[in-house]
Design a protein that fits this description.
The chain is mainly alpha-helical and 462 residues long. It is 76% helix and 2% strand. It contains 20 helices and 2 strands. It has a two-stranded antiparallel sheet. A hairpin with a 2-residue loop joins strand 1 and strand 2. Helix 1 crosses helix 7 and helix 7 crosses helix 14. It is globular. The protein starts with 10 loop residues before the first helix and ends with a helix.
């Protein structure tokens, strides 16, 4: 066994990880919920534009962070080096407990759900067995098999994981382009465009209450691309990370946000807002294809969304395991997770522990609640990390950083994040307290690990 990772990934691979991890199911679904909340085509576009701008600002800021601090672990190591080991641990703890694994559970369930449209025996209503109130469905089984399969692919080596990521990223990017082209050439309806973007109907919906809800409604759009930071977790396996990680962040997020904006414009150029608001199962992309080609389009969209979910899950499994590996190297997590297989050069134990926890979340079935709880804490960690840029600049004066953003970018991100955090605090308090409790639980756990590390060090020094 070895304890180091190899730099084998190039810029193209890094871009694929950024874009592939970002594009999941959100873009095909969340516009329905946003439309219901704001009841305005203009506000729907504004929300996606705001989420896109925020994402780009965050990516640019992480570009500077990764250019200055290119160590393995990404956001975990930024927090550790700029602030403290305790704060870094609390982030890593929350990432493992809910942020990364909870998102993975949701994405894999979504993958199983859309595969189930093609193969109906995969369903949340078809149970293999039940014990009391607990029922185990074929959908859960398929989702768990998917997690195990993707983990096995990545355990065979970084090349296998990245090949899978590249294949699925290219496929879903071209699928999204195909959806845009279908809407552009076969579905655009001038009457619908006028109806959706009528100033009278839209501005009557834009009032103080709607603007207050903006900070809540933007969460769905923002979290449709929240995993753009995952490439930083794997920086130690990217060639020339000081150059390639910032470039990958900028190119990858720019590509995805552009596709997101075009797809939403196509939604509004083809379908009335009411159709978007009440799309069956909230699958707006399916309603779009049905609107243009009829019911046969449902199968095609199911494949597209399933491909997107699988590629997203692969990217997150590939990258998330590197954070737990780094925490173990710092003796703040199970020591065996720091093991790198000598043959495959990947942290296999970290991969399989992550797999086991994701499967438990799928089995439990309340992963969506965990995701709701952690949104608030996740935004706070993003804000703290980007606030750290100003401290980092003082700490690393004269460093070899090759990339620096204008201070307007982190300030804009922080102001928007503060607006969203305050909106959630006022309008969705149930999102806040549970998320913070999960996060703060990491404080006593950190103390346990530090004591354990100190005790082991004392024994070794005797």
């Amino acid at each position: 066994m070895s304890d180091s990772l190899k730099r084998t990934l190039n810029l193209k691979d890094a871009i694929s990880i950024v874009a592939g991890s970002m594009i999941g199911c959100g873009i095909f679904i969340v516009s329905a919920d946003i439309a219901r909340q704001v009841n305005s085509a203009w506000l729907l576009i504004l929300i996606w534009a705001l989420a896109g701008f925020t994402t780009i600002c965050g990516a640019l800021c992480y570009g500077e962070l990764s250019s200055t601090i290119s160590d393995e672990g990404g956001q975990y190591i930024y927090l550790k080096k700029i602030f403290s080991e305790k704060l870094a641990f609390i982030y890593g703890w929350t990432l493992f407990l809910v942020i990364q694994t909870g998102t993975l559970a949701a994405v894999d369930i979504a993958f199983a759900k859309f595969v189930g449209i093609v193969f109906p025996f995969i369903s949340s209503h078809k149970f293999l067995f039940g014990i009391g109130q607990f029922n185990f469905s074929t959908q859960q089984l398929f989702a768990m098999i998917t997690v195990v399969l993707i983990t096995w692919i990545n355990s065979r080596g970084i090349k296998h994981g990245v090949f899978t990521q590249n294949l699925f990223t290219v496929t879903k990017v071209f699928s999204m382009i195909a959806i845009i082209c279908c809407g552009l050439f076969f579905g655009l309806n001038w009457d619908v465009i006028v109806q959706n973007f009528s100033l009278a109907s839209n501005f009557s919906a834009i009032n103080i209450s709607a603007l207050k809800l903006l900070g809540v409604a933007v969460v769905g759009a923002l979290f449709a691309s929240i995993t753009w930071n995952n490439v930083t977790f794997i920086a130690s396996e990217i060639k020339e990370p000081k150059k390639n990680v910032p470039r990958a962040l900028i190119i990858g997020t720019g590509l995805v946000i552009t596709l997101y904006m075009f797809i939403n414009l196509i939604y509004l150029g083809v379908m009335p807002l009411e159709v978007i608001k009440y799309a069956p199962e909230d699958i707006v992309a399916s309603a779009l294809i049905n609107y243009i080609f009829g019911a046969a389009g449902m199968i095609a969209i199911s494949f597209v969304v399933a491909i997107s979910a699988f590629g997203c899950a692969n990217g997150m499994i590939l990258t998330g395991s590197r954070v737990y590996y780094k925490m173990a190297k710092d003796k703040l997590f199970f020591r065996s997770l720091a093991v790198v297989n000598r043959k495959t050069k990947v942290p296999v134990n970290s991969l399989w522990l992550q797999c086991a926890w994701v499967c438990l979340l799928i089995l439990w079935g309340n992963y969506s609640q965990l995701l709701d709880y952690v949104i608030y804490a996740s935004l706070i960690f993003y804000a703290i990390t980007i606030l750290g840029i100003f401290k980092m600049r003082k700490m690393y004066v004269g460093s070899s950083s090759v990339y620096r953003v204008n201070s307007f970018i982190p300030i804009a991100f922080l102001l928007i994040s503060l607006f969203i955090i305050l909106s959630l605090t006022v309008y969705r308090p149930l999102y806040t307290v549970p998320g913070l409790l999960i996060t703060f639980l990491g404080i006593p756990v950190y103390d346990v690990w530090v004591k354990k590390r100190a005790k082991k060090h004392q024994l070794c020094s005797k």
